[in-house]
């Protein structure tokens, strides 16, 4: 197996090298296409400001004493940029009312109108059109109706109309209506309407409201449709409700033919620039349940758990804000779910796990637990910082799904709840005489349903004395950690298996834990030493600040920085810790005596570009602008464990391995077309790679991208570390912008250990003038899924 994995590592390296040799045409510069298609004639050339209408025609009948004036042939009325044109006009001088007939064309307040017949009040800019066509440029909406009425404030009413944001005689989509209205922001209200595709009616709606580009408006959002082996046919119809300027909500009507009807809700609020919240909840009475493990979905049958419940739900949310004063920051993470399979069942869709996770990361920058995790964490943070001090409070609830739905007795749940945790910090600061100091203090109350509960307090002062010279910086440090325990509930639960140092399972014999007040003292000493050597190379002369060279750029300087670093850490080993309570890994302090050494090389380029800026006389002037970029980083690191070199425990099973893996890291980003990241861990004892992380991405705006990724983990069984499973996963991705409207993409993931495809996904995005379409087909090891999404642009 080891030889096989070695070949896989070699193959992965070859893949990455070959990827670097992809055709460099992908980064060739291509001219940008005009992405704005013109659907209306140019607006009239701006004319000097006027305060009254001007009038012209081929022939005019009437004079100043007449009730009205009639004009024939090429009739034109204009006031500034507003214009009316027709074959015939009758102007009533007393009222400012004008009647138009024959090939009416108007440009009015930025809107374009066309009709056979119409009347306008030139004083208040109102009127009507017969067999009219209207184009409102700001919201980009077309209206064609038997009668179009213009009201005060650039709003229109219409009867027997067709509304769309598509151009052409047969628009891609349109809505016909007996009557309706539209305002300046593009909000359309339609009565007795029919939605049409290429003039073919698809469905009827007694009332329809299409929001425009103005303020948020309540209404139904575009439906999400999919079909999968796991859920069946799925239709999710969201309704969006604008509560006020600071709050809104979305309600999801999610029907799944194999599972039933799921009701979802989302609530968002933003009270000020420092506060925002997002809360989501979904509820379902599932048609399917698994009373025994063989009834579970095929990918869930190896976890030893079942799902007997039909009532399924997921409540989650995040909040950033302040408490009483903006200086007191508050953060809330909520994640509660009905069962261990929920995230895996409902992975996709508007309110699925993947979309929820992406939205939380995008809005709050905080993740949620993995979909396979049996521990769902809900947290409340409160913090305050001063110039030299800070405090943080935490309350955490850990929902252990292994003890729900009858899988294990809830009365035997050993999960630790933090109720609460208090932290106080004195930031590192000068103490005089060259010394620097810091202090951390921490208090926790741990609560268990099954097992020990109690208090833990830790105080950790640290002292540093930086020594700096021209060539070398050395920072010696010493710290102490005093820990105190006091149990409130003592319960002997026998042997308890916990994850120890390096991932190895360790056994805690709870019968040896003593009640009452106990303390533990540890000391840590060491130093960090580093230096930086730099050299700058000239690549090219600085370009001249000349107008003819505007837009040109070149690399003019290259700086290479080499940073060697040496760190030493010693922590005393404490005996007799089996008497102390166990709440987490901090309760078993493992001694340390190790040296870590690394070498980092960084390449930084300077680019000089000729840019234009306004000159003193208002004319453009050329100047040279500079920017810098660390485009390459290479780092090598290894540690030597002195304690491991002298270890006497379990020598018959584990040989001494004081040297850690050699870690080599390479990051390359020379320009805006390629990203390369690769990390390798090489074992000097195995003579092979034990872990790799590789990704290469080529991309070009307007053309697409290609990416290659490979992750590898080798199982390990050493004294200081353990990994039970191998991992060898290849990921390929591609996206091709076929043209301005069509994007084709694909994702492929393969597991070399289990010799199976994890994912094969193909998707197509079509962005047209007035709509977008998204098609996706995915074959995963757990499900096959086809989904369709669409959106009406400008609404």
From TrEMBL:
Give the LPS-assembly protein LptD central domain ranges. 195-287
Annotated ranges, domain LptD C-terminal:
310-740
Q: Which Pfam families match?
A: LptD, LptD_2
- InterPro entries membership: LipoPS_assembly_LptD, LptD, LptD_2, LptD_C
Q: Which domain of life is it from?
A: Bacteria
Q: Which Gene Ontology cellular component terms are annotated?
A: cell outer membrane; transporter complex
Gene Ontology BP terms: Gram-negative-bacterium-type cell outer membrane assembly; lipopolysaccharide transport
UniProt protein name: LPS-assembly protein LptD
Q: Which organism is it from?
A: Pseudodesulfovibrio hydrargyri
